[in-house]
């Protein structure tokens, strides 16, 4: 399609007489306006312009109440003057009048539309699009605006947006053939003749008397099948990115009807259906992909994920296991197998699967993290620590992982290393309660109570019932030598603990106090640390 010729859209008229009878009777304004309309209807545009201008002047100079007009009526007169100029191919003059119309009444949708028409006629496509969008802001069902936007986007080779606005034009006026015709031209221009023919047939079905306009810049294009297939993919991707997933699904299905062996389309359509929770249909699409296709392993992983959603864990695992026999070097398969084995309660095989995943994906931080998680679960803390350090090295901005690593250091009483991790997390999540608390614990254990106190106080401002912070804050003040304040916080801690013990029962109370290890020193421990990973 050529891009140097202007787009020719028709300006819109208005039902001017509706609501305007008031100023048309017995005044010079009314007489001039009526003469202008009559001249306009018989295509005497020069005479119409003179009469409309006389009407505008009369509205200013006549003093009678019935000669006063509202902004909407004045904007309509400007619009008709602009139309009369446009029909005489005076687009510069028409543009001036349309600008007056939209400034006089910014909510007049037809004025914005005609302004877009004037910009398009001058080849200013971007400004035309802006004006047409403004028209739709005031009248979302304005057929002409949707159709014209489709034409503008088609001129810019923005297939997705063109398709959307043509489709919305069809919805606004179901019996209109023209948007369907231009959709067909768009498909034809990219060699998608099956889609094009479907659009042309539909155009004649809804409007049997439709006569296609002379389109000199559209030609029958013969392209390779691969080029045409890429057009389908591109159009579907555009539609997906703009949120029109049902339309994208329709394009994928049209491509597969033409080329059933287009396995990439099966895979992408399966993804689309899975996101829409059409799980059985997605399973069917993934199952179409043969083992030799590059998308096979990814399709098996997604098929397994659907089985997992359906609580068919064994089927989900077998899908991955069989695929791994064909593709033993695919690390993602072992990563997902490990997750499934963990869900099935088979920790030892899950650990082996993650170990294999790490071998195949040495730069994948998730693989190292999950391996560390399993090592920690099975009591191999040293190995877990090494795996998590590697994961953090690979993903330094994985703040949740840093939190877990910091907590692991706390368990090993490496408070200096733990503090480094919590400081990093707190830089990005300054309001996270548990990170503030854990960093405060580290500073206290490092004999830096002055740095610990503001962190515990911040936790208590966010959660006054955080008993562990009360305990550690009291202990920190004792370290600083502020005995009275330290004892006050410890008394408050004891009070809350007694309330907790009373509400949770004597057995839990004994367990909590045993963990607390209250022996009377500054280094005494509260109930077990309430550790919760920060939310990302």
UniProtKB/TrEMBL annotation:
Residues 505-514 have a biased composition (Low complexity). Residues 499-536 are annotated as: Disordered. TPR repeats lie at residues 75-108, 109-142, 143-176, 177-210, 263-296, 331-364, 365-398, 399-432, 433-466. InterPro entries: Glycosyltr_41/O-GlcNAc_trsf (IPR051939), TPR-like_helical_dom_sf (IPR011990), TPR_rpt (IPR019734). It comes from the Bacteria. Keywords: Glycosyltransferase, TPR repeat, Transferase. It holds the Pfam family ARM_TT21. Pathway: Protein modification; protein glycosylation. GO terms for molecular function: glycosyltransferase activity. This is Uncharacterized protein. It comes from Kouleothrix aurantiaca.
